[in-house]
# Entry
Amino acid sequence: MNLWNIKAGWYGSIRHFFIINWILRKEKQNIAEFVRKYKIEPDKLLDIGAGEGETSTLFDNKTVLFAVDSSMRMLGICRKKGYLPAAADAVVMPFKSEIFPVVTGVGLSEYIERLNEFFSEAARILLPGGYFITTRAQFNIVNFLRNISGAKVRCWKEDRFIKSAEKNGLCLLDKTKSLIQVQYIFKKERRC
# Structure
């Protein structure tokens, strides 16, 4: 059974605890600042590892939202929020190349085993000049303790993370930090 199908039953509830809610609000504020700063107003968006679809609140109601997740239960929650869901792996997605102006992968890279393939797939589906908003778990005690939830949390080294993105034509525009994650915005370019 998919671990995230099991977590879907309590995932939303645990995110309301004070400290967890505080951490998540800060991460969301940081990403919202990217959206404002770079004036991102896409007609459609793909949210990879969508979970419960929290990313939807960062964008205009006119944005058509697509969700990719490996959990059917999480996709069911996304569907109720207006997403068009697709069950898929983050490194092999069922979309044509160069179709999304914005792709997000928030709180996802720490569960990815093949980092280069993750960035390669995000770059493949992004339109030229499109934005990829993602996060990286930092090395700290909080992320170490997250392993208790049953999933292996990978804290990628920043230089490897950025080099992997740039190798795939995703150029770093900006980054910011919160307690447990670093938030990044990349732009798909011919050269970084």
Remarks:
- Helices lie at 3-7, 11-14, 18-37, 72-80, 115-125, 141-146, 158-167.
